[in-house]
Amino acid sequence: GEIPADVFESYRGECINHLNDRVEIPGFRKGKAPEAVLFQHVPEMALLEEMADHALRENYGKIIAEEKIDAIGSPEVTITKIAVGNALGFKITTAVMPDISLPDYTKIAKEVGKKVEVIVEEKDIEDTIQALRKERALTIKGDGAKMEDITDADLPELNDGFAQSFGMFENLVELRSKIAENMKLEKEQREKEKNRLTIIEKILEGTKVEIPQILIDAELDKMLFRMKSDIEQMGLSFEDYLTHLKKTEADLRTEFTADATKRVTIELVIHAIGTKEKITPDAEKVE
After folding, report:
1. Distance in angstroms (rounded) separating the CA atoms of residues 67 and 64
2. Which candidate, 52, 110, 117, places its Cα nearest to that of 86?
3. CA neighbor of 161 nearest in space, from 182, 144, 175, 177
4. In angstroms, what CA-CA distances link 128 with 84, 134, 141, 145, 190?
């Protein structure tokens, strides 16, 4: 496309100031050189390129909105015509959100999904209470004490006083009840997650979509960033870790590609379902 000459020219003033702030000119502080002096040190083409950069940055979003292009990632921009007093000619190539052919996901959810029912065993509650008694005993023993050093004799007596020591329970019955409630919630959440994974896996089997490489690369970047962060938090060097594995970062990207592609596909599928079902976030919660 083109940006009309008068619109392109309107960026001249701000770009002169921008260049002035960046260019070192003997005898003048940055941003204070007169325009005539500035152009003794800056070629006309440098100004035109600065104007093109500002113009395209500002107008790119308007262009894709007007043309209803669902662009993703950073565009590849080529200037095709640039001269004083002329329209700015350009060519922009961008990846777009791919078309997705979804299977009947509501039918899949009904066929594959199952009602979540969990049971909390009495033994689970007792094991948790025993763990709490050991932790309390460890606290009482103080610095240097280890969990394996705790014996039955060290454990606090299991009575209402033990429950009250947590500050929110009147008696042992209340403590047991809250433990059972929390364990039930945790188990239900785990089962729900399993259920969701089963459903999404089945939906993926029937989904047809061509994933843009730019999305796969972005997901690989995220995966490697998380991996590097985890390794560095353990006090290790990522380079040393790679040496230990006898692999390069490129090797890891190749190994992770299948997983990255699947993650991107899941995100696109959920986005497509959300759009089709007109699911939008609550405005107040977003605010």
Report:
1. 5
2. 52
3. 175
4. 77, 10, 20, 20, 18
Q: Return the minimum-mean-pLDDT range out of 139-143, 220-224, 236-240, 267-271.
A: 139-143
Tokens of 215: 């999305």
**pTM value surpassing 0.70:** no
Q: Kind and range of the H or E element at 91?
A: strand 88-96
Structure tokens at 221: 């970047």
The 8-class DSSP code of residue 210 comes to: -
How many angstroms separate the CA atoms of 120 and 177, rounded? 11
pLDDT tens per residue, range 170-218: 999 999 999 999 999 999 999 999 999 999 999 999 999 999 898 999 9
| 60-63-68-73 Cα dihedral, nearest 10 degrees | -10
Cα–Cα nearest to 194, from 115, 279, 261: 115
Q: What mean pLDDT is predicted for residues 131-156?
A: 88
Amino acid making up residue 127: D
More reliable by pLDDT, 5 or 95: 5
Q: In what order do the strands lie in the sheet with 88-96?
A: 2-3, 88-96, 71-81
